[in-house]
Amino acid sequence: MYIRGDHVELVVGGRLDVRSAADARTVLHTAVDDGIGDLVLDLSELDSWDATGLGVIMGAHRRAGRCGRRLVLRRVPPQMQRLLVATRLHRILAIEGGIGVESLPRV
């Protein structure tokens, strides 16, 4: 897993899972704490995430809200869109362009 960028936009790539969660949490919390306005997470290079990785995203979302910021997901890969819909988190998280639920293939 890697994260590159600054306190305004971060690109997350690789696997966001139990092994990378602690490092990802640290980077995301620092970015939230050091900036103002929206924090954009570009997920176009993310290969996969597990429940722990999704928990890291939700933790960053909550922290951003407490800091008066908004976490915005950009370019969410289709397989991750399906997980957000299945968990109904697409209703809570800000997703740039939204998710076309009807266009997602059924699993």
TrEMBL record:
Signal peptide extent: none
Ranges in a coiled coil: none
Domain STAS: 1-107
Classification via InterPro entries: Anti-sigma_ant, MlaB-like_STAS, STAS_dom, STAS_dom_sf
Family affiliation: Belongs to the anti-sigma-factor antagonist family.
Name of protein: Anti-sigma factor antagonist
Taxon lineage: Bacteria, Bacillati, Actinomycetota, Actinomycetes, Kitasatosporales
